[in-house]
Fold this sequence. Notes:
Elements: H1 2-15, E1 19-26, E2 29-32, E3 40-41, E4 47-49, E5 53-56, E6 61-66, E7 69-73, E8 78-80, H2 89-103, E9 118-123, E10 126-130, H3 136-149, H4 153-166, H5 174-186, H6 190-200, H7 207-226
Amino acid sequence: MKKIFVLLFLATAFVYGQSCKIENLKGDVKAQIGTSEKWLPVKKGQELSVDAVISTGKNSFVKIDVKDSKLMLKSFSALKLSNIKKMTVNDLILALAMEDMLNAPKKKGNTNSKNTAVYGAEVNGIKTPIVESDDFGIKRLNGAVQLAENGFKESAVVDAKETFRKYPETNNLTSYRIFFANILFDLGLNEDAYDDFKSIEPLKLTGEEKNEVQAKLDVLAKKLLKN
């Protein structure tokens, strides 16, 4: 456990030494910086430290440049700028272990919130869930989906896991849960993917979702038996 904390501290220290620049924006774009709880308007050309969280409103977007990485955050989305980074699969495994430790005492079953997610455009054959809502947990998940769309799949999973932990009601949003479980599946993290799909199985699923979850569980069960 001590090793995990040390490695995460070093990784965080490296990231927080960076900064980002707002290349362009439109509409309602605000940032929460550091430990401040205030949301402040963001301007084109403004530089922000990566400890900031950025949020977009209706019909809004912001183009962000972080070191050598760029990302456009679309409407009804929120994102921790520190998560716009490349991670290895080993980095992800480490982060997942940390999330498990943080989440373990709170695993008391799923909440009873309604599933309000709807489907948007397909990304790599997967329909991405898009929700026009002011719910900040859903905004965070929309941001994590966009991280994955832009090639930051490992950090997108970390972002999503943190969101599911901090906003427990989002755990019942099955389209998001399946989206990120599929990323674990595609990355070959079979045990983590199996655990995710298994926890999704009891939720209120559509017929298509039930078929997908069961198919993935069958495939993963066979893979795990071979190991």
